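Cross-check.
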Amino acid sequence: MDQIGKMTDSAKLKAKQLAAKEKVLERRAELAAKAELDKAKHLADQAEKWMKARARADQKKVAALEKKLMKQLRDAERKLVAQAKAAEKKAEKKARAVKKKLEAKARQITRKPAARRKAAAPKKTPAKTKAKTKATSRKKS
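Predicted model, tokenized:
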């Protein structure tokens, strides 16, 4: 009986050892799973922080680009307005010059007929004097 008692004791001991090993392995597995969960959670948190930072940086870049484009648009609009004003001024200046020329022509036309009549009469007299000089030169020879 002594032998049976020892065997039962050793079997109980082996069973307890196996149960303890199983508990240890089970606990290790739990801890490993928990560590993996913590690691995954940490990585997710880091990824979320990175995404937020990336979104902020992208938002800043987009805002800067919008600001730049709005400035370019505003400058182009100002340039077009300035060109339009310059063209308007040029057209007004040209219109004034044309008006001035037309007024000058109108004044000239209203004054010219009297001047032409006076100038036309003396032209006939020099022709007579030439004929007289030729006739007098023939008589002398």
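The radius of gyration is 59 Å. Residues 64 and 103 are 58 Å apart (CA to CA). Passed to J.P. for a second look.
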